[in-house]
Every structure is written in C-alpha cells, then in structure tokens.
Predict the 3D structure of the following.
Amino acid sequence: MTKINVLGLGYIGLPTASMFATHGFNVCGVDINHRLIHQLNDGEVLLQEPGLQTLVQAALKSGQLSVKSYPEKADVHIIAVPTPILPDKKAELSYVVSAAQTLCPLLEPNNIIILESTVPPGTTRNVLVPILAETGLDPYQDLHIVHSPERVLPGRILNELVENARVIGGLTTKAAELARDLYMTFVQGEIHLTDVTAAEMIKVMENTYRDVNIALANEFALIAESIGVNVWEAIEIANLHPRVNILRPGPGVGGHCIAVDPWFLVQAAPGPSQLIASSRRINDRMPLHVAEQVQALLKFEKSPKIVVLGLAYKANVDDYRESPSISVIRWLQAAGYEVVVFDPHIENVDFLPMVSSMDEAIEGAACLLVLTDHAHFKHIDPYQIKDKMRGSLIVDTRKIIDQSQWEDAGFEVHVLGDGFRGKTFDDKHLLKEKTVG
Ligand code: SAJ
C-alpha cells in the first residue's frame, strides 16, 4: 500500500492527510507541535471546520492515519507547512526549509515530494530542489518533485478539497503525472498539469486578484465618504452592469492567504508589481481608517468603552490570523480607549480583552463596532441592548446590521463607506433643493 507522509497538520495538512487516509492510503501525519499530536491522538480536533472532526476521527479509527512528531520512510511526502510574511514583506520560508531537511535522510529513489504550501514563484526550483539534491539523489531523475498549491476556502475546506480544480506543477512531466494519479483518488474537479514555477504563480495570482479587487472596493468606499455618496448603493447599482462585479469594502483584509500572498509576487518581481503593492497598502491602511472614524465619532465622550464585535478575519470562522480586527483594536488601544472584544466563534485569546457574552460586553459601553460579518451579529436585537449601554453609537464596517431597525431603536448608526450617512435618496434630494432654494 502506498505510504504518504504529510508534514504540517494545520488547516490544509490535517484535512489532506485525513482525505488520503480515507481513500486507501497509509498516512503518517507529522507536526512539530507535540501538544497537537497528543490532542489528535486523543481524538481531539480543535480547528473549527465543518466535517473535519468526523473525517479525522474516522481516519484515525481506521488505523490508516497515524499522527507523529517525526516522518517515516514513505513513497510520497507532502509538505503543508505555513509560509507567513516577515516584517520586511518577504516570505518566511524557514518552515519549508526545515521540513525538507527533515525529509532528506528518509528519501529513496522514486519518492514523490509535493509542496502544497503557498510560496513565492521560484521557491521550488531555487530553495526546495537544492536541499533535496544534497541527498545525492538527482531531483530530475531519481525524485519526482511537484508544487500543488492548496486553493480551498476556510469554512468550506472539505468540499473544496474534493470539488475544486487542482493545479499540479511538475519539475518534470513525469513528476506531475505521478502526482495527478495520487490526487485523482479523491479530487473530482479538473486537474491541470503545468510547470512548477507556473503553478506557484497561478496560486498567488488568484489571491492577488482578490486582494486587488477588495482594495478597489475599499478605495471606492473612501472616495464615497469624501464626496458624500453611499458606496453600498453605488456598488449595488454598478454591479447591475453585466461586466462589473465590485467586491465589498470592509475594515481590511485578513487571513493567512490574501493578506500575505500578493507580497510573494512583489518579492519575485518588485519592478512590475506596482498595482499589487499599492493594493496591499490600501487594504492594510483600512484598520487605521476605521479607528480614526471611531475616534472622530466619539470625540465628545469622556473615556468611552468600545465593544468590538468580531475578532475573526471573516464571517463564521474562528480563524483570526492577520485579522484586521487586531489592528483596529491596537489602534484604538493606542489612542487610550477601553476596548472589549466579543466573538461568538472565539472563546479566548491571551493577547486581547475578550468577553464571552453580549450581555457582559455591552455593560456601560459607549459604542459598538462591528468588524466581522458573523451571521450571529445580524440577529442582535437593538431594543434589548439599548438600555444596558451608556451610549448609543454603532459603527458597522461590514454593512450587516439592519440600519433602520437600529435607528428606530434609538441608535446613531455609522456605516463604513456611507458618505451620505444613512439618509435616503429623498432626504438627499430635499437637502439639495433646500440648498439651492
Ligand atoms: N473580504 C472583503 N471583501 C470581500 C471579500 C472578502 O473585505 O468582498 C475580506 C474578508 O473579510 C477577509 C479577506 O477578505 O478578511 C479574505 O477572505 P476570502 O473569503 O476572500 O478568502 P480566504 O483568505 O478565506 O481564502 C482565500 C481563497 N482565495 C480566493 O478566493 C482566490 C481560497 O480559495 C484560497 O484557498 C485561500 O485564500 C488560501 O488558502 O490561499
């Protein structure tokens, strides 16, 4: 039976290892985090991802998946470790390097090595291949090296792992074909074979496309605020055009992918990457813009308490990596505000003052600040909380609350990108007439 090592048991490695294990392979899942290994061996899956717990437990119970701190000899080695960004906006490749070094003593002729981590174009050829070559095995003749980037959406990982199209970039055609035969055992989407560097570029292009488009939506929001237009209405109408699809503005872009990967293109080719770098800066500046807006709205309040609703980087997940909420909170704290954070998907973190219920959060609060579009927040009843608060301001950076309902309940509602501050078309029209008259 084909034996597979999966190095890195995070959001991608754990589902991938379990998927191969439940499709007839003998899988050894490996992670340097000993605590995680103990938890998994006890059947505990702490990542919140629909269906993941059941899949992992089934894989472990069947004996097809084992989890360990060190890899073993195997036919296939999949590297799915994190590639975060360093303060100088260069990729931190040390986890990839050390995973590759760990594998070296185990490698044998005809082994397949698959890099799934997202990396700057050129990494497989210039970083991974030289390390593997130190074994004395020829990376082109004796080994089969590919980059097959994960492209799944957190919150839908198990579905997308199976249904999405997959790209496989081979150092050689044979390597790509062998990897294709492996993934075909569970992937139902189309599988495209290409060159290894092209595969690296395709992956980062996808996330860059989204980042640039979100930056455009955010820039539209800033323009709308400065010229007195409601960007949300404007986008809705513009999107009626058959070839226009503007994304949603917000407090910034988070997650371990979209806020990071565009820098990998800038790193690979800084000269031509002007639009990409500029979009990154626009999205990265949004948290400060939100904090400045809140500060301006609260300028007459004495030592107000602000309740942040949502720490996760996006709706209905528990992941707060690179979350814009963290930057907004840091800016507000730096400005001297008392901030408490409530997120129904995240119980606690050790670096922020979190509360575990809405009741606890709103006690004596001056302002509610919606930073994540969790479904939970859409169902808050403004009438129930109004009297428990000290103030009556709500700032919605995601446009998820029912503005007229909150206004009827006596709240002052401020929506990001609404330069016309919630007035209706008729109000606007009347105002104009008054000014002209
Ligand atoms: N966001 C907006 N406005 C929008 C859409 C998103 O502000 O209109 C924000 C979200 O709130 C969030 C961030 O952007 O903070 C990213 O969220 P996302 O849902 O767009 O993407 P991720 O980071 O969860 O997952 C992305 C996906 N890539 C693409 O859709 C091109 C996923 O398919 C990738 O597999 C994943 O990155 C990854 O691992 O690279």
The first strand starts at residue 3 and ends at 7. The chain has a mean pLDDT of 94.
